[in-house]
Design a protein that fits this description.
Elements lengths: L1 E3 L2 E4 L9 H8 L8 H13 L9
Antiparallel strand pairs: 1-2
C-alpha cells in the first residue's frame, strides 16, 4: 500500500492479465470513428513489434 500523510493513495500489486481479445472488444465500438492518420500510427507501431526477446541474451 502506498500512503501519503496517512491516506492511502494506491495499492501496488501485479497487473491484471489482459488478452488481445479484451483490447479488441474495448476498441470495437470506435472502429468507424478513427481517422486514417490514427490507423497509420497504429500500423507503424505494429511494424516495430518483434518476436525477439532482448532479455534472452
Amino acid at each position: 500500500m502506498i500512503t501519503r500523510g496517512g491516506k492511502r493513495l494506491a495499492v501496488l500489486g501485479p497487473a491484471p492479465k489482459a488478452t488481445g481479445r479484451a483490447v479488441k472488444d474495448a476498441l470495437l465500438p470506435y472502429v468507424d470513428t478513427l481517422d486514417d492518420a490514427f490507423e497509420g500510427d497504429v500500423m507503424a507501431a505494429r511494424d516495430l513489434l518483434t518476436l525477439d526477446d532482448p532479455w534472452n541474451d
